[in-house]
Design brief:
The structure holds two protein chains of two kinds. Chain A is of the alpha+beta class. Helices cover 47% and strands 19% of the residues of chain A. Chain B is mostly helical. Helices cover 80% and strands 6% of the residues of chain B.
Chain lengths: 205, 35
């Protein structure tokens, strides 16, 4: 748009300048070529130019300006097609506004894409990134509805459980164990611990 | 199992899970009374 504006001003200026100088130049060049007759002819051409050239310059300027605006709009539309960052998540039932955390939003966006029907309305409470020294990094997502353990390396959900199904949790040597109220189906486990899948176990491993 | 060896982080997770459990149980209890 800036280029268009500059060109518009240039065109108007050029039109005005050409119109004004023509009033003086045309009679002189006319007189040189055709004497008194040429002088009058030059005066006529110069006067005509004074009326027409600035108008032509203005019209040309408007055309350049609209071209610039059009180009800017086209450019803006292409920019809007890609998202600059993940949508913000709010925390808790009260939907508390916290400073933007890129990793949190990345994880929430991952869940939402995984299952938009189930995971788009989760009430996020907190996301904890587990030991970074481990080969496969995990993050724990606590929502009011479900708790997820996500493998960051595999970009997959290691396990998930409904929050209301949790009975208690306790600290063990390797981490935190969660006891469920009722036995549940097999839950995939992390490979780093080589734990066998426990069918109908009420212990979330 | 939530794999975590860092004891500070373990405490943090334990506290969060405990708080979540309390909130969920409280909500379920209210729902039971209401029904």
């Amino acid at each position: 748009m800036l280029t268009g504006s500059v060109q518009a001003v240039k065109s108007i200026g050029k039109g005005l300048f050409s119109g004004i100088t023509g009033v003086v130049e045309k009679p002189i060049s006319g007189a040189k070529k055709g004497g008194v007759g040429g002088l009058f002819k030059g005066m006529y051409v110069g006067a005509k130019g004074l009326a027409i050239k600035p108008v032509a310059g203005v019209l040309d300027g408007v055309s350049k300006l609209t071209e610039g605006v059009s180009n800017t709009i086209d450019k803006d539309t292409s920019l809007q097609t890609s998202r600059m960052r993940f949508p913000r998540a709010f925390y808790g039932k009260e939907r508390i506004f916290k400073s933007y955390n890129m990793s949190h939003m990345y994880v929430m966006n991952f869940l939402m894409n995984k299952n938009p029907k189930k995971y788009s309305d989760l009430t996020l409470l907190e996301i904890v990134f587990l030991d970074q020294k481990q080969k496969n990094q995990y993050c724990l997502v606590l929502t009011l509805e479900r708790v997820f353990l996500i493998s960051m390396e595999k970009k997959s959900i290691a396990w998930k459980v409904k929050s209301e199904k949790m009975k208690e949790s306790f600290r063990s040597e390797d981490g935190i164990e969660i006891i469920l109220k009722k036995p549940t189906k097999a839950i995939p486990v992390s490979e780093i611990f080589g734990v066998i899948i426990h069918f109908f176990s009420n212990k979330l491993r | 199992m939530i794999p975590c060896k860092d004891s500070n982080k373990k405490t943090e997770i334990y506290t969060l899970l405990h708080a979540l459990h309390e909130v969920v149980e409280d909500t379920l209890e209210k729902k039971r009374i209401r029904d």
